[in-house]
Amino acid sequence: MKGYVEKTKALLxxxxxxxxxxxEAGISYASSYPGTPATQxxxxxxxxxxxxxxxxINEKVALETAIGVSYTGRRALCSMKHVGLNVASDxxxxxxxxxxxxxxxxxxxxxxGAFSSQNEQDSRYYAQFAKIPCLEPSDGKEAKEMxxxxxxxSEEMExxxxxxxxxxxxxxxxxxxxxxxxxxxxxxxxKNPARMIAVPSNVIKCHKILNEKQEKLKRxxxxxxxxxxxxxxxxxxxxxxxxxxxxxxxxGDEFAILKISSYPFNEKIxxxxxxxxxxxxxxxxxxxxxxxxxxxxxxxxxxxMTGEIxxxxxxxxxxxxAYYNGKVSKTDPPSFLSSLPLRPPVMCxxxxxxxxxxxxxxxxxxxxxxxxxxxxxxxxxxxxALDTCLCMxxxxxxxxGMSQQGVKRVAAVIGDSTFLHAGIPALISAVYNKANILxxxxxxxSVAMTGHQPTPLTxxxxxxxxxxxxxxxxxxxxxxxxxxxxxxxxxxETTEAVLKEKLDSEGVNVVIARRPxxxxxxxxKK
Length: 526
Ligand SMILES: Cc1ncc(C[n+]2csc(CCOP(=O)(O)OP(=O)(O)O)c2C)c(N)n1
Prior knowledge:
This protein is α/β, with parallel strands linked by helices. Helices cover 38% and strands 18% of the residues. The protein is built from 20 helices and 20 strands. Thiamine diphosphate (TPP) binds next to α4 and α17.
């Protein structure tokens, strides 16, 4: 096990602690798609767990596979970054209706401050939307314990359970207790159509069962001890959710604290807490999810809805001090960050994406729809080579949309992993609807952006073993591309000539710019 280990204690990164929690909970399976800040959870499990730990092709597949494992009666962990839950949400909403057998825990890592993400959405709304429980730890130590609790809760309620963490928990280390590893559940396959087949004749009954669980879930929160009041005659108080509790403790003498770690909860605890308080703060990362509830029980609330705390960005440990010193305005970054130099990401020296962009710029597309990965940095100066970036897989569809309105010489640029994740349906749709676009797939043999994870194109698994291998050229041909041409982006002359020809051609033409990421190439040489 990586990290400093002393008898039954270890200093572990938050993500590693979560991975350890899942192993101790007796999982039989773990699945994920890379995404900062959640990536290391699966990497830790792949290194330290003898059973199956897999990179799925996207988050929806990861969750669906976990549900399949649950149908064998065994426990499965599924981890992802917050926007990954958007992709998995179709499976999640109905899985909540049908329920699970073996425990299914979904660890979702939100990214307040959007340090490495396309937005700063709040996953607690997904738990509420799906009517399932959500546990929210305040540090890595709690995260490990809550993953174990979440598996027990999942099996008790027969529901998937979300554990919501944030960047500062995933990427900071804390001392965790190393516990025993629970034996895995035995495999047992039981057919139960009424709870496994979401057809109209079943879903209303399933919805009723889900609705009936809601009161039970609130009672569970109440009895769990995870939501707790610390009050000692103070006149001011803080409702602290998840990481907010770590910040609230900084003000623990002067402020009473209500720690919230389990949703849904009985609102009586809020009512009891705010009674007699002259000032109530709500510290929660991302959106004012709990603040809206607190405002129903007190008129003395300070938080994101009234601007005492910035509704954008992350909180930071000095959130209240900054307010009392008159330093907070809605647009300021947290004051503890303003003292640090900005370090925007840049393309690595020698990155072949830069070579590709040189050729693309030279052939002057009318418009270039981009996507998400290291190659998104091509949108920045001095290249200015991309005109859009929305979500994974969107570039091909956006380019097709422009082409359908008669815009000529439109290009889409997408990475190999992003293409497999969400680009294939977009490519098929563009072919089917007769778009005229150039699709450039930058194949660098890895998911470089998130730390060089392997892809099915490399045929290497999350555990570094040999897996099945798929061919990018064959996929593109099977999708009906008018042509598929492979170039080496370092060969500027050929790349430029091919791009020029394909930009002016009819149909959907795919150009694969293939060159392993320099870091992957270095590792392979070693
Ligand atoms: C739904 C979703 N899942 C995960 C991510 C995290 N993520 C950003 S880019 C990317 C893939 C990058 O790999 P690739 O397309 O091969 O491009 P590269 O970085 O290697 O150039 C991932 C996994 C995300 N932004 N959105």
